[in-house]
Amino acid sequence: VQRDLNVAVAEFTELKQQLERDTLVLSILKKLQEFDTALKEYNTALLEKKYVAAAQQLEKARSSLKMLESRRGFELKILKALGTELTVQTQNMLYHLGEEWQKLAVWKLPSSKESSSLESVVHSELHLRTVPSKEEEIAGPPVASVLQAFAVLGELRTKLKIFGQLLLKHILKPLISYPSLQPFTEEQSDVFILRFKSEEPSLDHSSPMEVFDKIKLVFEVLHKYLLNVPLEQPAEDKKDCRVKLAELLGDMIWEELSDYLIQNCLVNSIPTNSSKLEQYIEVIKATEEFEKALKNMQFLKGDTTDLLKYARNVNSHFANKKCQDVIVAARNLMTSEIHNTIKIMPDSCVALPRLPNPGAGDHLKTQKTSELLHNDTVNLENETKLSQHTFSLPTCRVSSSVAKLMELAYQTLLEATASTDQCCIQLFYSVRNIFQLFYDVVPTYHKENLQKLPQLAAIHHNNCMYIAHHLLTLGHQFRYRLTNILCDGAATFVDLVPGFRRLGMECFLAQMRVQKGEILERLSSARNFSNMDDEENYRAANKAIRQVLHQLKRLGKVWQDVLPVNVYCKAMGTLLNTALSEIVTRIAALEDISAEDADRLYSLCRTMVEEGPRVFTPLPEDDKNKKYQEEVPVYVQKWMTFKELMIILQANLQEIVDQWADGKGPLAAEFSAAEVKSLIRALFQNTERRAAALAKIK
After folding, report:
1. pLDDT per residue over 558-578, tens digit each?
2. In what residue span(s) does the Centromere/kinetochore protein zw10 C-terminal domain sit (predicted)?
3. Alpha carbon 457 to chain centroid distance?
4. Is 454:559 a contact under the CB 8 Å cutoff?
5. What is the spatial distance between Cα 315 and Cα 297, in angstroms, rounded to a whole number?
6. What is the DSSP string of 155-217?
7. Cβ–Cβ under 8 Å, residues 179 and 213
8. pLDDT higher than threshold 80 for residue 370
9. Distance of CA 169 to CAs 121, 126, 195, 198, 225, Å?
10. Element of type H or E holding 344
């Protein structure tokens, strides 16, 4: 019995193993049969243009093949051939679907060379087929079957991506970029056409509302004729395909589309004036409605997008845009010509805004208290009143561009007073940036002209003083009108004043140094004013004197009516003083002056004394200049020294001693004893009278 039992167990084990082998072979044969059946049914469905069924059969065949390939120990040679066949049939299927897709959505586009211009964009068209041809009616809507088949094969995303890029490039972006472009639809028996027509635009940029309406129309057409079709999903994906299809396209193009809308539409709609900010709520509402419509068509998911966030953040964008516009306008003014000037007078008023009173509160209480004190006490005020122009800028000329720059600063600060706190702060610091930009840009941009042209150097000097003059009170004028953060002492421009004054002075002083250098260079050709009895030497000295006077007259003309009178007189006085000082030094250094030399030197000096004051012409009216010409000794430090030198050149020994008057006379006030002795030795021969005279000079 035991032996029979062992034999039975062995037989059972063998039969069991054989059954397992047969079951496995059977399952493999079954899968091969399923693969074969799927391919046969696929071919039948493809011939009947039942694309969804054909795609599903291909997926079944792929599933069977994967199962076969996963079986270990049954690496059949036939599997490789089956895989190749499946790939061939899949590509064949995709080719047929591609052909159908091209019939469903037909693009008619201009040649690639012209695609960017408005004229060529007008010729772009999209044809969407609406009714299937008769032989296809059995297969259901062509759009549904083609798109479903693509989805089953996993190729839908690729097709939609290409379609989305064409849609962006040839329809959506042109509608945003060109205000004159209008979408135009035409429905025929079996096709729906989306094309453009061009109208005369009323503005350079379309309003966001108009752009949103155009884009909404395009998406409505796509939703109705291409994406809104009832589709059956494969078993593994039970989601509604309409949502998936529209969302799929939306996910692919929305980010790029919203960025383009922001950069080419919403940016241009940001108001440039704070008074128009309230009207911008219409744009925000239109953006909300636009997004809501796209969500209803399933192009967008439920979250708020960057487009709406941008529109709602209008205050920040307004401030940024305003600040940018202000800086650009300021820089354009700074790089414009300096020589176009306007006249500034103490009683002249630049077109500046009238500011309201600081407001109620502590400021008014303080005012009332001071009035009560004033009424109850004795008037200790000095009867002498200051002139109303005491703190005014003196009459001068400034560049018209700088006057406009100051107007821009005032208008921007006025705009800041009506803005939100954040915008107010940004605008205030933009105005500060204007002046800091001036400090850096103008001296660099106009460097060459400021060095070469004395008139421009004078105008630049005035410009800097004019700006500094306004900066003293600019912050104070707006102090109680700006946001509280700035009211606590931050709203000031006074710290910029010394820098601007220094900038103007340095430029003008550099020009003065250039002019001084030219004067000294011309006088260096006078041959030290020695040996004037030599005709050639005399001509050289005379020419040098004439050149200096000519230079001073020319400067007097170019600075006339430009510099303030006091600055003009100081500048001309300094330059004339340089010439006289140099002449005095040269003549005083001579060791021998003959009688003829003395006469000729006197003649040259007389030319300077007679014509020197005539270079003082600060005003265009000649009769008004006489006053300043008579005041030459005030502005020319060495004037009296020069006149005393002329007296010495014509005087005898006794007259020189009288002028010295024991160190108390007018000569002693201008020359040292050593200088006078040196001149006496040069002018007079060595005699007892000269020795006696020299003894009295001490």
Report:
1. 999 999 999 999 999 999 999
2. 391-521
3. 28
4. yes
5. 31
6. -HHHHHHHHHHHHIIIIIHHHHH-TTEEEEEEE-SSEEEEEEEE---SSSS--HHHHHHHHHH
7. no
8. no
9. 10, 12, 14, 18, 20
10. strand 341-344
**One-character DSSP codes across 346-397:** TT---S-PPPPP--SSHHHHHHHHHHHHHHHS-----SSPPPTTTTSPPSEE
Put simply, whether the predicted model's pTM sits higher than 0.85 gets the answer no
For residues 526-533, give the mean pLDDT.
88
Determine the Cα–Cα distance for residues 601 and 586; give it in Å rounded to an integer: 11
Rounded Cα distance, 249 and 558, in Å: 71
Residue 181's beta-bridge partner residues?
198
d(CA 196, CA 117): 13
Is the backbone of residue 665 left (phi > 0), alpha (psi -120 to 50) or beta? Answer: beta
Residue 483: C-alpha distances to residues 185, 488, 662 (Å): 53, 9, 73
Element (H, E) at 397: strand 396-399
Residue 635, pLDDT > 70, answer yes
Higher pLDDT, 580 or 313: 580
Pick from 372, 223, 367: nearest CA to 294: 223
> What local confidence, expressed as pLDDT, does residue 571 receive?
96
Amino acid at residue number 346: P
- Token pair 């694309």 is found at 51
Give the mean pLDDT of the chain.
80
Residue 359, CA atoms < 13 Å, CB-side half-sphere: 10
C-beta of residue 639 within 8 angstroms of C-beta of residue 633: yes
Of 123, 52, 135, 57, give the one whose Cα is nearest residue 89: 57
CA dist 621 and 635 (Å) reads 20
Higher pLDDT, 603 or 78: 603
The H-assigned helical ranges of 105-136 are 118-121
182 phi-psi bin (left φ>0, alpha ψ -120 to 50, beta other): beta
Q: What is the DSSP letter of 233?
A: P
Place of tokens 């001693």: 657
* pLDDT value at 200 more than 50: yes
How far, rounded to the nearest angstrom, does the alpha carbon of residue 41 sit from its chain's CA centroid? Answer: 67
Position 440 scores a pLDDT of 92
How far is Cα 166 from Cα 176, in angstroms, rounded to an integer? 15
Helix (H, G, I), strand (E, B) or coil at 492: coil
- The whole-number pLDDT of residue 263 equals 85
| Strand boundaries in 455-602, DSSP class E | none
